[in-house]
Design a protein that fits this description.
Blueprint: H1 2-11, H2 22-32, E1 37-41, H3 49-59, E2 64-70, H4 74-82, E3 87-91, H5 95-125, H6 136-148, E4 155-158, H7 165-174, E5 183-187, H8 193-201, H9 218-221, E6 226-230, H10 237-249, E7 251-252, E8 261-262, E9 266-271, H11 275-280, H12 286-292, E10 295-298, H13 309-323, E11 330-331, H14 333-340, H15 347-361, E12 366-367, H16 390-408, H17 413-420, H18 424-433
Parallel strand pairs: 1-2, 2-3, 4-9, 4-10, 5-6, 6-9, 11-12
Antiparallel strand pairs: 7-8
């Protein structure tokens, strides 16, 4: 039997060894440790297959064990599966049956290896070392993140757009005990109230128009892992109530459902809004704020940590050289000075975009000031017809649309939010952003 299996596997390109007893198999695995799969009979004269399975799994849990059994001992094979066998095959078997079992296990090993590789890459990508900077402010952030990562505390990250809130959240997750489970991001500002509720908690078929089948939400996807709620200041009071229940009881109901669903999820929330101000205005639940605000991390804007710009610029230069197959060697002192004197309203994200553009368009070996036109310059990135930057024009248009809507609704904020298809919290954030007088 052993020699037949060996010849069959050899014909398929696999190398195998045959031993005459269970004891010899255990010794060989212990001494060599180079085997991917062990194929063992259940019934042997010295040590039976169950004992071989136990010993091998104790020594190396990564080795897959397949047991061979006759029709009369299938119950023993089932017992072997409970003890960790990967599969079993019933004698007599066809040649192709054995090949299918072996190849299925090898394919699973390759997939598991790929998952481990990707997980390792993610862990490396989001190590604390990738939070770049040596300024006192960023060192303080690094210290807090290091201290809280391996706890179960909920975390609130505050900072302007582009300061690296998601990077910080991922660093916390991938350095925690939950790192082998999902990290799930939800952009709360990008969805309407109904869609956000469905996205977070899932829905049952027929729960609303368009719900043609059941759907699990992001909380269930993130079970045992971390859910990152970006721009949490934009969620409605109704969704806040369901979120509070998850924080308090670790359970919720899907939209249209009535059965509690239990989850084990760590919540990291982020915002660029003044949540405390929203609490006072009645736009954000006070109890939810306190639940989220167990640990608060403030990410400083780039203009307050200008000393970190040379390090960040060098980091992005390396990344975008590789990404764009370029060989730019460095950034001149004059160009660095120019970067350090800019206000960086878009923070780290804007800096990275500027460096990527410079890498792509740079004609020399070193990036010079002329390679990094900035928004406040008259000769720079494409501008609107009025000579103003595109973002400023977009802000002006958004401001005027909000003012017009408020006038049409008689300054009724709730009606205005519905017309604009945004939450009330999001509307108030925009009123603050554009300095629109709320007495309109």
């Amino acid at each position: 039997m052993g020699e037949m299996c060996k010849e069959l596997l050899k014909s398929k390109g696999y190398t195998s060894e045959v031993v005459s007893s269970g004891k010899e198999a255990i010794e060989k695995v212990f001494m060599d440790g180079v085997y991917s799969i062990v194929l063992t009979d259940l019934v042997m004269p010295d040590i039976d297959g169950i004992e071989v399975l136990k010993k091998i799994k104790q020594q190396n849990p990564q080795i897959d064990v397949v047991v061979m059994t006759s029709y009369g001992t299938v119950t023993n094979a089932v017992e072997a599966m409970k003890l960790g066998a990967s599969d079993y095959i019933t004698k007599p078997f066809k040649r192709d049956e054995l090949v299918v079992v072996i190849e299925k296990i090898l394919q699973m090993q390759r997939l598991e290896g790929e998952v481990d590789r990707l997980r390792s890459e993610l862990g490396e990508k989001y190590t604390f070392g990738n939070i770049i900077g040596e300024s006192a402010k960023i060192k303080k952030v690094f210290e807090i993140i290091s201290n809280v990562s391996n706890t179960e505390a909920n975390i609130l990250i505050q900072g302007e757009t582009g300061t690296g809130k998601e990077l910080a959240a991922r660093a916390i997750h991938y350095n925690s005990a939950r790192k082998n489970y999902p990290f799930v991001k939800v952009d709360c500002a990008a969805l309407t109230e109904t869609l956000l509720e469905s996205e977070l908690f899932g829905h049952e078929k027929g729960a609303f128009t368009g719900a043609i089948k059941d759907r699990i939400g992001r909380f269930r996807t993130a079970d045992h892992g971390t859910i990152f709620l970006d721009e949490i200041g934009n969620i409605s009071l109704a969704v806040q109530a369901k979120l509070l229940r998850v924080l308090q009881d670790s359970e919720f109901e899907a939209v249209g459902g009535d059965k509690p669903i239990k989850v084990d999820v760590r919540i990291i929330a982020a915002t660029n809004a003044d949540l405390e101000g929203n609490v006072e205005k009645g736009l954000f639940r006070r109890d939810l704020f306190y639940r989220l605000n167990v640990i608060r991390i403030f990410l400083p804007p780039l203009r307050e940590r200008a000393d970190d710009i040379p390090l960040l610029a060098s980091h992005f230069l390396s990344i975008h050289n590789e990404k764009n197959r370029k060989t730019v060697e460095g950034i001149s002192r004059e160009a660095i000075n120019k970067l350090m004197s800019y206000t960086w309203q878009g923070n780290i994200r804007e800096l990275e975009n500027v460096i990527e553009r410079a890498v792509i368009l740079c004609k020399g070996k070193v990036i010079e000031p002329a390679d990094i036109p900035l928004y406040q310059e008259k000769t720079g990135f494409p501008q609107g017809l009025s000579g103003k930057p595109l973002q400023e024009l977009m802000d002006q248009v958004e401001r005027q649309i909000i003012i017009n809507t408020l006038e049409l609704t008689g300054t009724d904020k709730e009606k205005a939010a519905k017309v604009l298809q945004i939450s009330r919290a999001s509307l108030y954030n925009k009123l603050n952003k554009h300095k629109i007088n709320e007495s309109l």
